[in-house]
Amino acid sequence: MLSHLRAQHRAIEKGIKAIDTYLGRVSKGAKLDERGRCRLQYENVGLIVLVIPDHNIVIFKTFINFLPDPASGKLLPLYYHLLDMSDEPETGLAYFAIVAAEELGAEKDIISVETKRPIADISFEEFITCVRAVGEVANRWMERLEKEFEAPRVP
User: Count of CB atoms within 10 A of residue 3's CB?
Assistant: First the structure.
């Protein structure tokens, strides 16, 4: 049992080193900080890559819009829309989530686009696929969410 855990730990360490290499290939000088985070620019959005070794997960995430004012009457339709879009083929690996304001120190809850993947054995192609999935969905939907649901963009 212990040898299996050691092997998994080595695979995760190797995956983290690979992710750091991939970050440098995507953006010169990009690398994980001491908290396991790195920010990349993908067109109009800042995309965060976050490694969580204890759970063998790498998260690709961007924050795109604040939730609309509840008085606008657009909040519930927006929730349903985000649920529907998270299951649409056009979003691919990416899905929408709502992040509590308290978690980010913001005034309002925020809509994010994200995907997750195991750290161990991640290839450059998988890394790029995740970056593109989140970046492209975020760039495609942030303007539409602002117009259709009065959800202001995150600056």
Answer: 7
CB-CB contact of 98 with 109 (8 Å): yes
CATH architecture of 2-149: 2-Layer Sandwich (3.30)
| Half-sphere exposure for 66 (CA within 13 Å, toward CB) | 13
Site of tokens 């890559």:
49
Work out the number of other CB atoms within 10 angstroms of the CB of residue 127: 22
Please work out, in degrees rounded to the nearest 5, the angle formed at the alpha carbon of residue 47 by the alpha carbons of 43 and 51: 150
Kindly report the pTM of this predicted structure.
Answer: 0.90
pLDDT tens per residue across span 25-84: 999 999 999 999 999 999 999 999 999 999 999 999 999 999 999 899 999 999 999 999
Look up residue 30 and give its two tokens. 């990009």
pLDDT bucket at 4, cuts 50 / 70 / 90: low
User: Domain-by-domain residue ranges, the chain?
Assistant: 2-149
pLDDT-derived band at 1 (thresholds 50, 70, 90) equals low
Neighbours of 93 (CB within 10 A): 16
